[in-house]
Design a protein that fits this description.
- The structure is a homodimer.
- In chain A, about 75% of the residues lie in helices and about 0% in strands.
- By secondary structure, chain A is an all-alpha fold.
- Chain A has a domain of about 200 residues: Farnesyl Diphosphate Synthase.
- A two-stranded antiparallel sheet of chain A has the order 1-2.
- In chain A, helix 1 packs across helix 4, helix 3 crosses helix 9 and helix 3 runs antiparallel to helix 15.
């Protein structure tokens, strides 16, 4: 398969759905234009749509073929985007640049940024509630999304990350931060694709393992890129983790060991897919791409 | 009926459910204790539980009798609490006191307050996804809650409120702020009770009208109490709206006219209930109580 073509095609479908979503907000007279503008600014800043694409690829791996996966897939991007907006706030990571443009609070002010984040988080659930699928399936998707992104998932990881800033985390704490801050939503993305495709328990289990491994690897590689990447490649300041006293894999394990860990996790994630044969080819290719990514 | 007894009994049931919810978070090893503490602090600060009680009373008005209403009812309190935490932040209304105690960011820091709000918002949907009801009903509840609290509802109202601070709003803008900032979630509370009780279209329509009227009245009375109430009664600073240049009913219509408007809205809300006979007695009593409340 041609991975570049695959990623491009799926990103296009997701972006189209996102555009449709934000346009419908614009036309809804009850949504204040200023708020919608801030939401759109963050949402359409050129993300790679990794989580939606993982969700779609997982859905396809279990035999799903319909566009009905798009609402759930893009809801994941709304959650991811809201988390970036809130994480960038002065009280949190205090970042001025993201994806080569000023962060949302720099462009629209802090109040609008907080509210745009809240709006995107809320709308993620609105979008799923309007998707085409059996209500029982949608409830399971909502369960998965709220658990993966809530206090036992992404928000929990972010809370510990902030709390331990400037202190040296132990390996267990570092593992908690990474598997939750980034891992939990990526795991949920893969599982939601499987749930929408009514996967068998065995396939759901295999995809869960894939999601866990690739989710952790994703954050380890993020940490590595913060040291080895350039500002142009990443669209944000590099070396920021170190400056801020963040606990990262390189800061605890060293750069070389972190690269080894990432590579091993990616190999394990691909191994978890053996029961799928060629149907999970896209997922395996995405895993290898995650390891080699430069931004 | 004895309204005080009714309110006390329902508040007790809601508080019990909330306690169960927060205790289960405490025992869930994936939820950071510091984050759960901040969530609990805001949630258990002694709110009147107006939204959950309206939801339960509406459910009972259409014939509902089971405790299965509690998850949906308390999800409304999670949304309300998150909105207070975020609204109190320095970048928003910058309030130091709420319910006679320091606001969440004063007690736990801004980052923890932002994340506690995000966690409560997310968990509102998690709680509903685990409730006992037909999946189709739960999807309709999630639709209602996300629309009422999202950018076309509560968050939209808050965005316009903040944007027009210090500027004089016209009557249309003031109406938008009040029907959305406060009205939309109260309307949703009443409608969710009706949906959970599988109300007929005619009854849902009547309850929607009730919810709209009482929701707007609630915020008008809030504005009035900010002028006429004492700090002890309200548990927060009074006169803060005026100091901050907020657009309120008294600031646009004057205090006496605002009282008349509130009274008329409450009368209209009670009139909307005529098709229910005695089954909506509690709702009518609550409406009258809202008009006479001192905090």
């Amino acid at each position: 398969m041609n991975l570049n073509h695959y990623l491009k095609e799926k990103k296009k479908a997701v972006d189209l759905f996102l555009k449709h979503y934000i346009t419908s907000k614009k036309n809804q007279k009850d949504c204040p234009p200023h708020l919608v503008k801030a939401m759109k600014y963050a949402l359409m800043a050129g993300g790679k749509r990794v989580r939606p694409i993982l969700c779609i690829a997982s859905y396809e791996a279990v035999g799903g073929t319909s566009d009905n996966i798009l609402p759930a897939a893009t809801a994941l991007e709304l959650i991811h985007t809201y988390s970036l907006i809130h994480d960038d706030l002065p009280a949190m990571d205090d970042d001025d640049f993201r994806r080569n443009q000023p962060t949302t609070h720099k462009a629209f002010g802090e109040a609008a940024a907080i509210l745009a984040g809240d709006a995107l988080l809320t709308d993620a659930f609105a979008i799923i509630s309007e998707a085409e699928a059996a209500p029982k399936t949608l409830i399971n998707v909502i369960k998965e999304l709220s658990f993966g992104s809530g206090p036992g998932g992404m928000v929990g990881g972010q809370a510990v990350d902030i709390m331990l800033e400037g202190k040296r985390a132990n390996k267990k704490e570092l593992h908690y931060i990474h598997t939750h801050k980034t891992g939990a939503l990526i795991r949920a993305s893969v599982r939601i694709g499987a749930i929408m495709g009514t996967a068998s328990p065995a396939k759901l289990k295999a995809l869960t393992e894939f999601g866990e491994k690739i989710g952790l690897a994703f954050q380890v590689i993020d940490d590595i890129l913060d040291i080895t990447g350039t500002k142009e490649e990443l669209g944000k300041s590099t070396g920021a983790d170190n400056e801020r006293g963040k606990n990262t894999y390189p800061s605890i394990f060293g750069l070389d060991s972190s690269k080894d860990i990432a590579e091993q996790l990616i190999n394990e994630s691909v191994s978890a897919l053996t029961i799928f044969n060629h149907k999970a080819e896209a997922l395996a290719e995405i895993a290898r791409y995650v390891l080699s990514r430069r931004n």
